[in-house]
Amino acid sequence: MRLLPTIAGPSDLKKLSPEQLPELAAEIRHAICDAVSKTGGHLAPNLGVVELTIALHYVFDFGADRLLFDVGHQCYPHKLLTGRLPLLSRLRTREGMAGFPEPRESPFDLFSVGHAGTGISTAVGMARGDQLSGQAFDPRTNPSGRRVVTLIGDASIVNGVAMEGLNNAGTLKRQFLVVLNDNGMSIAHPQGAIAQYFDRVRMSHLYADFKKGAAEILRQIPGGSLLHDAYHKAGEAAKAVLSDNRGGGWFEHFGLVNVGPIDGHDLPTLIEFLTEARDFERPMVLHVKTIKGKGVEFAERDASRFHSPPAFNVHMADAAEDAPQAAVPSTQVSLQGCRVELKTEGPGLTRALQEFPQRAWDTGICESHAMDMMAGLAKTGFRPFFAVYSTFLQRAFDQAFQEVALQGLPVRLCLDRAGLVGGDGAVHHGFCDISLLRTLPEAALLAAIDEPSLIAALEFMRTYDAGLSAVRYPRDIVSPRLAAQSCPPFAMGKARCLTSRFADGRETPDIVILAFGTPAITALEAADQLSDEYKIAVYDARFAKPVDTVLLRSLLQRRIPILTIEDHGLIGGFGAAILEAAQELALDASRITRLALPDAWIHQDSRAKQLAEVGLDAPGIVRSIRAAVTGAVETGNAREPRPTVPAL
Ligand SMILES: Cc1ncc(C[n+]2csc(CCOP(=O)(O)OP(=O)(O)O)c2C)c(N)n1
Question: Taking a C-beta distance cutoff of 8 angstroms, is the pair 362, 188 a contact?
Fold first, then answer.
């Protein structure tokens, strides 16, 4: 590597000649591929925007100009061009580079983001704010003012929030650039009519035609600035060349000038067009066509698999294939993998879509729509299951409330990646699904702890017709710990005792652990470690709504200390439900201790480290058990709120 280590910031990039940029692009690709192969992370999305990001930083000055990422999973080249190469080797760890834009890391990152669809709206807000404060770029009155750019993918722009943003962006009376990174891909193939529209634009209006037409216009306007003069002087014919109206002029209807598509790997063209767009005083969409995974053969060939792979080995292929190959190691069975067997696979829907093409749908990045579609299906008498990451359920809460719960419709939610998610960090934790859904009357809220319990939970939900139901499970491997035990069916609001000697209630334990979800298995490990000191009963609580009030009453009446444990926020979670139930039963809740995610943001790291940080690993649970038995106040106890992540 020759050039990349010399780039401490965009000003160093600007010192390079245009001829040096392809070499820099190659070095960036190499660095990203090398790092992701060791740590896991978003590979193909970043490889696809290397030239585009170089060109953006080459043309704009994002020390003053605003650059807003949509999703933000494609920010690695941007981070490398803004002085963060030293953090790359520890990608997605606390001391290394976050996998998403992170203002704590650099002033070049404006928002911590990870959810799709937000870039255009936040950019509109900043564009308006800069206008109000007199800092906005204006070609006549403030030519050195701040420009605004947002980068969004072709699958994310379909999102309802992005549409709302576009609708409003068209009313701006100033420079505002939406760069559409069109690679024809979401994680898999994108869904819906707009995806088909982009396909048509790509096919019908290739870059070569576009450039020829644009050059023709330039020739007609001596000394002209391509975009500006074409738009203002050359009339409708020129506009038609610059903005593809053959596919329907989609963005034009929102009031944005539409330019492209241009080749997103051709640096001179990118620089040429971005330079023009930089000083264009109206909202514009620059449609840039890129190849997801560009430059790394295996990532290009299988961009879906290499969208966000775990660590993988790169080795030279045999001579026949003559290209580097990558193997993603097969790991242990995950809770996500179980769903494949259950035919209810969620965000990784491929197999369900193949096996049940008539009754499985991938709606794209449209959680609100998907929830309402489920409501409609339920209204026609079907029993829909909606698989969604816990963090993205948040987008559909209003629909869960009104169109599902209020109607008493039995929509079943499979909440994947519930709890701490590891390397994706704070933007993706499923920390509040129970807090949100617990507010909905008739909701039945379940958690699975292993594969048999997930199957049993789904079976319960299949027959639960009174309203919304949900099962949550983390991004984790399946514990074999209870494989030898039979898993009883779920019964409404009934916990399952995992420590058989206490199951009949005749022996009185020193403490009872009520664990919601997979922490129940960790609690068993902790109980093993303390078996010489305390008699510990461990329950898989199974339900956060309704909670097992029969069990709770019996424990509190016998004055047995209770420790609630959950991989979910302390506020409004399972432990909160237990406290509220105790109060409603008019029983003394002072012996209840809660261990949950603290009221603080947990940043990127391995899930194991995050669990240890909040005391949800076995040593942490051991400490909480000791504290709860002896009456000391411990982690996450609401009566002693802790402002930061506890140092246990
Ligand atoms: C609200 C929301 N739902 C789902 C996701 C999961 N997700 C992350 S990236 C991605 C695909 C984005 O596709 P696109 O915007 O076209 O970018 P590309 O990866 O193709 O560069 C999805 C679905 C998300 N980040 N946010």
Answer: yes
Q: Are 589 and 561 in contact (CB under 8 A)?
A: no
**How far is ligand 1, taken at its centre, from the CA of residue 133, in Å?**
33
What pTM value is reported for the model? 0.90
E strand or H helix that includes residue 389: strand 385-389
- Does residue 143 have a cis peptide bond before it, meaning omega lies within 30 degrees of 0? no
Identify which of 435, 381, 423 has the alpha carbon closest to the alpha carbon of residue 577.
435
Quote the mean pLDDT of the chain: 89
Q: How many helices (H) and strands (E) does the chain have?
A: 25, 17
The rounded Cα 212 to chain-centroid distance in angstroms is 40
To test the pocket of ligand 1, the residue of 112, 121, 187, 305 to mutate (highest count of ligand atoms within 8 Å of its CB) is: 187
pLDDT at position 249, please?
73
- Is pLDDT above 70 for 214? no
Give the HSE-up count for residue 136: Cα atoms under 13 Å, Cβ half-sphere.
22
Q: Which residues contact 148 (CB under 8 A, 6 or more apart)?
A: 65, 66, 68, 123, 126, 127, 130, 175, 176, 177
Specify the residue with its C-alpha closest to ligand 1, atom 14: 153
Would you call 395 a catalytic residue per the annotation? Answer: yes
> What is the distance in A from the centroid of ligand 1 to the CA of 586?
48
Instruction: At 595, list the tokens.
Output: 């261990």
Q: Rounded distance, CA 151 to CA 545, Å?
A: 41
Residues with CB under 6 Å of ligand 1 are 45, 48, 71, 73-74, 114-117, 153-156, 181, 183, 185-187, 292, 365, 367, 392, 395
The single-letter code of the amino acid at 194 is I
589-601 per-residue burial string, b: 16 or more CB within 10 A, e: under 16: bebbbbbbbbebe
Pairing of strands 385-389, 412-416: parallel
Q: Over the stretch 300-351, which tens digit does the pLDDT of each residue have?
A: 999 999 999 999 987 633 333 444 556 555 556 666 655 434 334 345 567 7
Strands (DSSP E) found in 237-312: 257-263, 283-289
Structure confidence by residue, pLDDT tens digits, 227-261 = 666 666 555 555 555 555 444 478 888 999 999 99
For residue 48, which atom of ligand 1 is closest to its CA? Answer: 21
Instruction: State both tokens at 515.
Output: 């664990």
